[in-house]
Amino acid sequence: MVWYNIIKSWFYLITIFFIWSCNSQGDNHIMPETTYVVDSIDMADGLSGEVGAMAFLPSGKLIAAFRRGEVMTYDIEKREWSVFAQGLHLPLGIEVLSENEILVMQYAELTRIKDVDGDGQADQYLVETDDFGISGNYHEFTYGPVKDESGNHFIGLNSTSSGGVMMDELRGEKKEIGFREKGMYAAVPYRGWLMKWTVDGQLQPFASGFRSPNGLGFDLDGHLLVTDNQGDWVGTSPLFHVEEGKFYGHPASLVWEEGWNRGRPSDLPIEVLDSMRQRPAVLFPHNIIANSPTQPLCDDTGGKFGPFAGQILVGEMNQERIVRVMLEEVGGALQGACVPFLDEQGLRKGNNRLAFDEEGRLWVGQNASGWAGSSGIQCISYTGKMPFDILTMKIIEGGFELTFTKEISEDILSDLNHYLVSSYYYNYHEKYGSDQMDKKDIGIQSIEVLDKGKKVRLLLDTMEKDRIYEMQLQDVVSQDQDTLENNLICYTVNHLK
Amino acid sequence: MKSLKNIWLSIITLLITTSGSISQTVELKAVGGLQYDVVRFKVKPGGKVKLVLKNTDDMDHNLVITEIGAREKVVKAAFQLAEKGPKMEFIPDISEVLYSIGVISPGEEKTLTFTAPSKEGVYPYVCTYPGHGSFMFGAMYVTNDEMPELSEDLHVPESRRSGQMAASSHDHHTQKKFHPYETTPPYMYRIFMPDSGPASIAVRLSEDLSYCWDAVRCQLRYAWSGEFVDPSEPWSIKGDAMAKVLGEKFYIENENFPLHIGNSPSEVEYRGYRLNNDGFPEFLYTVNGYLVHELLLPMRDNNGILRKFRIPDLDRDLVVESSPQKMSKVSVSKGSKTRSGYELSAGEGKSFELSIDRLK
């Protein structure tokens, strides 16, 4: 905690200096010292502060749900908290319908909650759908909802954990072959599935193979993106582009596929499972990028939050970090790179839920629930100072093309010593997690500097698919003497160009 | 020559290992909630210690014994290993690391044998797996004296100074403020409850009365008098945990669903609840397609619970089954009494009351 406090105080100093310098300079244009400012929001007295869900009301107020079942609103101007609803069970998602009506995903159901009499507090809690199994196991988290352009919603059902038990009384049919004594399992319906709640109110199985999908979102093109958590059959945490009817790797859920007659899915040979599964669009190398990724949120602020509009931000539980993801379509599928974002700028760990407000500020809600994490809410604003960072990493024939937010001298960019490239893969197997496999250094054949030093094309000695290419940029400074914010980037190569 | 040297070495090693017999065996478990089950232990200065670490959690952990006072420094150094971390099992190569057990997966066990430092003092042990170090630690006392009172021991995590696992519930007599609002009845929690289904609702009706309603079976499961529930365990740990009922049950309902409309078995579907003007929930559910409203209220002087039913569309006879009770008496306001309950006509069944009177 000591060094965390040191970082915090250092950060406050910078903020104070920034405010002071702005004030003292009057109307002179002076660039702020930092690109992003992280503010911690004072929580209401008595609130656990562990955030399960966050959204914004039409009035601009924040609405958030917490671990002990409260739904609170926060007036950003007045800095005032008010109770909207209470008594919910593990609320993990909110969709705002109007100023006085919301959908909340809680443990047992998707609930429509409304303040009917207009006194500011909800008085009606009606079931929208509870057409899925629950067994009273602590790990049966329920995620979402997120809504597509046609008005269909998607929710995610966590697999059941052998770290807990099933109650004697269940909701839904129980399948013995879905049970496992070890790891995650799916003995009640649709555990490990992504479900589609259709416009006409039907809850339908949509895609299978999820272990702990604590994060659903869409990109600007309407692709449904879902994160999962490292564990059995998940060598390192992934981000998937999820499409109907496909299987994403964790076998437990397969017992609930219509007409399933192949016995215990976890007994299927790994080669068979491997041939059935879809590859993650992006892998987050464990302990390097993220250990427990959460909600993917598309930067749809159109530049209000900085130069990364259209990219995906993903929360991370275990580190004081948000991860930035850039996707591209290669070989008919999405793949791309991930890079740390906002390291050591005062952000806490436990970053569970993300939401942009109208001004393009990013609100981050933190949680722990017994895992590594923290609690509270922080608000991140873009000061307008252009960060020096990697804007995009794209695959090209024989290598990669990096684009930066600022110009860099040709001397630096064309010097091999500034790049360290390695590649490796993660095993797909029943064992919990995977080591980095076959890690090898990759030589650089040639470097081409383009666009006045904003872009560089690197041709590598070898380019192989089904591997992660990790690139470290060392001692890279921009023409205006900024140092690179994040110098580690990992690209998941599913398809070559 | 070389082989002779090896033999000598083996003999010497054998002598050392047999003569330096283990003076103490310590068994530690990595358990859920980012903690070791044992947060401190005592060894003799210079004593030979066998430490067995078993991982019963569902994620990876390690264990590092550090120099006196060096826990935070070691945790920080481990974090700074960044991408080199996994290969080094998150154990930094610095002099403050005295002994260590590398990463062990769930279910695994590893043993470390070492000689305790000869210098007396408190040597921290800590899991340096990223994100774990600020919670998951303990203290190895190297001393011939007694350890201090646990409640005052600043070398163990604060949550463990009460002598209980962090997983254990808090003492409800010192109930802390759980919410940013006053909890005056009526109020409710959807939470895991004992002797009920996985979608239970605990309702505090009055300063003396509470009940548990099951949103899977759509029925009242039981009611009790006394305090409400202790929800602290499910709200503080990672793992299965239920709220604790703090009182004495005076009503326990039969497993059979009590309302029968028509001859076919009752099929129920939970629809939600509305809070009335006083904040009491009125549950909504269907029985064989008929929408039922059920509002539960405390009786005057907390003498029992009044269940007010409304089935506006009822167009056939209704049978209300009553559960025999030892500590309360059940009666229905309308219809004719039978051996197992009451029979109500369609007109009577549209609106009736079921009273649960506590026996004094």
Features:
heterodimer, A: 497 residues, mainly beta, Immunoglobulin-like, eight-stranded antiparallel sheet, four-stranded antiparallel sheet, 3 helices, B: 360 residues, 2 domains, six-stranded antiparallel sheet, five-stranded mixed sheet, 10% helix
Architecture overview:
The complex is a heterodimer of chains A (497) and B (360). Among the domains of chain A are: 1-21 and 30-40 and 280-385, no CATH class; 390-493, Immunoglobulin-like (Sandwich). Helix content of chain A is 7%, strand content 38%. Chain A is built from three helices and 34 strands. In chain A, the strands form eight sheets. Chain A has an eight-stranded antiparallel sheet, with no helix packed on it. Chain A has a four-stranded antiparallel sheet with strand order 1-26-25-24, with no helix packed on it. In chain A, strands 2-3-4-5 form a four-stranded antiparallel sheet, with no helix packed on it. In chain A, strand 7 and strand 8 form a beta hairpin. The model of chain A is unreliable at 15-27 (pLDDT under 50). With 360 residues, chain B is mainly beta. Chain B has two domains: 18-157, Immunoglobulin-like (Sandwich), CATH 2.60.40; 172-358, no CATH class. Chain B is 10% helix and 41% strand. Chain B is built from four helices and 24 strands. Chain B has helices spanning 2-19, 71-79, 232-236, 346-349, and strands spanning 24-31, 35-36, 40-43, 48-55, 61-66, 97-104, 109-115, 121-126, 137-142, 187-190, 200-204, 209-214, 219-230, 244-252, 259-261, 268-275, 281-287, 290-298, 304-310, 318-321, 328-332, 336-337, 341-344, 351-358. In chain B, the strands form five sheets. Chain B has a six-stranded antiparallel sheet. At the A-B interface, helix 1 and strand 9 of A face strand 10, helix 3 and strand 16 of B.
